[in-house]
């Protein structure tokens, strides 16, 4: 008998509802108001947002897996935001497109968050920068993106307007916390190899300021699900051809660790204002 996969028998939104039900049952939180995806360097923010009421290994929730990238957290946390009655669902790991699990798996976190009740999502990442005036550790607000993965999380005749995908209102809140934050255009490549100098140059010609391997597909899925999106990038290194040294994942991890306390405080303060 031929084997069938869960995706052949279960639609993406059915699987998301199933995952949300497991999270609600195991966490005791009936509704999560917002979601956070904590990329490289951002994991410490969860400890500053509020009281953790539940931790669930990601691999025990339908459709999720243990993280494939060093520096990502293998648990989902339900956190009561300090001073509020709001709950945040913190996704400590994301599925990257380069893992080969398909675009549905990449979008699953956003669909699950929406099924769990979230109407806002904060997407964070570590990435390379094109602006030579920025230094590793610089946080940049994403104001727009360029998706170079040649893929979309939308299926069928699903036409979604992305004109204001990255919320101006939420960016304004972030600027209230830190008026010096620059804004930029994030360019997602498929990965997992780093971009060549020529590809980085192309990204700049297209209007990009940051290059990485995540976020854009999740942002599109979040918009389809009706969530308000805030994107923050931690520039961990200058991109290929701009950086005078070869790129390495160890460099990304080190830059994230050095910036972690500062960016965790920034993100926590932003979350406090998102109610």
From TrEMBL:
<keyword id="KW-0328">Glycosyltransferase</keyword>
<dbReference type="InterPro" id="IPR011268">
    <property type="entry name" value="Purine_phosphorylase"/>
</dbReference>
<comment type="similarity">
    <text>Belongs to the PNP/MTAP phosphorylase family.</text>
</comment>
<dbReference type="Pfam" id="PF01048">
    <property type="entry name" value="PNP_UDP_1"/>
</dbReference>
<dbReference type="GO" id="GO:0009116">
    <property type="term" value="P:nucleoside metabolic process"/>
</dbReference>
<dbReference type="InterPro" id="IPR018099">
    <property type="entry name" value="Purine_phosphorylase-2_CS"/>
</dbReference>
<dbReference type="InterPro" id="IPR011269">
    <property type="entry name" value="PUNP"/>
</dbReference>
<dbReference type="GO" id="GO:0004731">
    <property type="term" value="F:purine-nucleoside phosphorylase activity"/>
</dbReference>
<feature type="binding site">
    <location>
        <position position="126"/>
    </location>
    <ligand>
        <name>phosphate</name>
    </ligand>
</feature>
<feature type="binding site">
    <location>
        <position position="40"/>
    </location>
    <ligand>
        <name>phosphate</name>
    </ligand>
</feature>
<dbReference type="InterPro" id="IPR000845">
    <property type="entry name" value="Nucleoside_phosphorylase_d"/>
</dbReference>
<comment type="subunit">
    <text>Homotrimer.</text>
</comment>
<feature type="binding site">
    <location>
        <begin position="94"/>
        <end position="96"/>
    </location>
    <ligand>
        <name>phosphate</name>
    </ligand>
</feature>
<protein>
    <recommendedName>
        <fullName>Purine nucleoside phosphorylase</fullName>
        <ecNumber>2.4.2.1</ecNumber>
    </recommendedName>
</protein>
<feature type="binding site">
    <location>
        <position position="195"/>
    </location>
    <ligand>
        <name>a purine D-ribonucleoside</name>
    </ligand>
</feature>
<feature type="binding site">
    <location>
        <position position="72"/>
    </location>
    <ligand>
        <name>phosphate</name>
    </ligand>
</feature>
<feature type="domain" description="Nucleoside phosphorylase">
    <location>
        <begin position="34"/>
        <end position="271"/>
    </location>
</feature>
<comment type="function">
    <text>The purine nucleoside phosphorylases catalyze the phosphorolytic breakdown of the N-glycosidic bond in the beta-(deoxy)ribonucleoside molecules, with the formation of the corresponding free purine bases and pentose-1-phosphate. Cleaves guanosine, inosine, 2'-deoxyguanosine and 2'-deoxyinosine.</text>
</comment>
<dbReference type="GO" id="GO:0005737">
    <property type="term" value="C:cytoplasm"/>
</dbReference>
<feature type="binding site">
    <location>
        <position position="214"/>
    </location>
    <ligand>
        <name>phosphate</name>
    </ligand>
</feature>
<comment type="pathway">
    <text>Purine metabolism; purine nucleoside salvage.</text>
</comment>
<dbReference type="InterPro" id="IPR035994">
    <property type="entry name" value="Nucleoside_phosphorylase_sf"/>
</dbReference>
<keyword id="KW-0808">Transferase</keyword>
<feature type="binding site">
    <location>
        <position position="237"/>
    </location>
    <ligand>
        <name>a purine D-ribonucleoside</name>
    </ligand>
</feature>
């Amino acid at each position: 008998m031929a084997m069938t996969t869960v995706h052949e028998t279960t639609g993406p939104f059915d699987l998301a509802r199933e995952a949300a039900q497991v999270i609600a049952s195991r966490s005791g939180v009936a509704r999560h108001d917002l979601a956070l995806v904590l990329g490289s360097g951002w994991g410490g923010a969860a400890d500053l947002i509020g009281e953790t009421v539940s931790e669930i290994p990601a691999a025990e929730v339908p459709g999720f897996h243990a993280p494939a990238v060093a520096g990502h957290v293998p648990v989902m946390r339900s956190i009561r935001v300090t001073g509020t009655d709001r709950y945040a669902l913190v996704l400590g790991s994301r599925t990257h497109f380069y893992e080969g699990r398909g675009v549905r798996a990449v979008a699953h976190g956003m669909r699950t968050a929406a099924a769990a009740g979230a109407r806002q999502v904060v997407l964070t990442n570590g990435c390379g920068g094109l602006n030579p005036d920025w230094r590793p550790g610089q946080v940049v607000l994403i104001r727009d993106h360029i998706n170079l993965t040649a893929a979309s999380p939308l299926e069928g005749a699903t036409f979604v307007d992305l004109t204001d995908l990255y919320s101006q209102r939420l960016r304004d809140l972030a600027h209230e916390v830190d008026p010096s934050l620059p804004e930029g255009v994030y360019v997602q490549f498929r990965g997992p190899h780093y971009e060549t100098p020529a590809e980085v140059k192309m990204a700049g010609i297209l209007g990009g300021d940051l290059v990485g391997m995540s976020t854009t597909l999740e942002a599109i899925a979040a918009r389809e699900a009706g969530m308000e999106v805030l994107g923050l990038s931690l520039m961990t290194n200058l991109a290929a051809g701009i950086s005078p040294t070869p790129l390495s994942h160890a460099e990304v991890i080190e830059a994230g660790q050095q910036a972690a306390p500062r960016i965790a405080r920034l993100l926590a303060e932003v979350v406090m204002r998102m109610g």
